[in-house]
């Protein structure tokens, strides 16, 4: 057998098959092989964007309001009467009670600096009749007044029960001689009666009758005048 002739015959038969395989391989390697033209990209829009929005409907104009021909005048309602707030009662004041014989007198405790025993008193020429003189109170010269003589009821006879009440008014001090001391008591304003019209104005503040013995309340500042 002629081998060369057989090989040539086989090559002639297989040539179309090999060419077809080569063409298919080249087409697979090319991205757009076999397509006539590339497809253009299509931009997709959301469904809501494609729906047209209707224009806003204008609100109807309000109808004009016509005021009535006759308008009644406003009726003023009187405000309810307010009851006054209750006024708190003043606290009772404290008083120092002293005696002139059997009579009872008192000075407001705020005006009393201290109470001392009867000290030596130096008389002063030309002083008022109720002024006994001056005494030395820890290096300070203090005038001393007989309370009974100042009130015009007599004079105090000093003894072991007698005391000198030192009153203060501003920077001034004044000693008042009394027969004895009673106590310190609280007297409410409603327990004080108005003084008699015959008394010196400003000297007597009132009379307290809430105790067993009526007590004359004296204004301490009146003794400094």
What are the SSEs and their pairings?
Blueprint lengths: L2 H27 L63 E8 L2 E6 L3 E6 L13 E7 L2 E7 H5 L11 E7 L2 E7 L1 E8 L4 E2 L10 E5 L6 E4 L7
Parallel strand pairs: 2-11, 5-7
Antiparallel strand pairs: 1-2, 1-8, 3-6, 4-5, 6-7, 9-10, 10-11
Outline, from the CA principal axes?
elongated
How is the CATH topology of the domain at 93-224 named? Answer: OB fold (Dihydrolipoamide Acetyltransferase, E2P)
Question: Averaging pLDDT over every residue, what do you get?
Answer: 77
Strand fraction equals 25-35%
Give the low-pLDDT segments: 31-49
Main β-sheet: number of strands, strand sense, barrel status? 6 strands, mixed
What is the helix tally?
2
Topology as a string of helices (H) and strands (E):
HEEEEEHEEEEEE
Q: State the strand order across the main sheet.
A: 8-1-2-11-10-9
The level of helicity is 10-25%
Compute the separation of the termini in Å.
176 Å
- Tell me the total number of β-strands: 11
Cα-based radius of gyration, to the nearest Å: 63 Å
SS-based structural class?
alpha+beta
CATH architecture of the domain at 93-224: Beta Barrel
CATH homology superfamily name of the domain at 93-224: CheA-289, Domain 4
